[in-house]
Write a structure and sequence with these properties.
Layout lengths: L1 H17 L11 E10 L5 E10 L4 H4 L2
Antiparallel strand pairs: 1-2
This protein binds zinc ion.
């Protein structure tokens, strides 16, 4: 069981070090591929892909 705890702890630390902390909310920002559908004049949809950093400040806007 001790090994599992060590591994979990290392994984947790590694993920914290990789992420950039938001200075506003203190949450580690999670890079996410955000796909936005935009209607064109002809009635078809265009999809634009964007890499966004999600933290508590903008998660509600993006994950609505
Ligand atoms: Zn934030």
């Amino acid at each position: 069981m001790a090994k599992q705890t060590d591994f979990a702890e290392k994984a947790r630390k590694a993920s914290q070090e990789k992420g950039v902390k938001c200075p506003k909310c203190g949450t580690v920002k999670i890079p996410t591929l955000y796909v936005q559908a935009t209607a064109s004049k002809r009635g078809s949809y265009k999809f634009s892909r964007q890499n966004v950093q999600i933290c508590k400040c903008n998660e509600k806007q993006i994950l609505e």
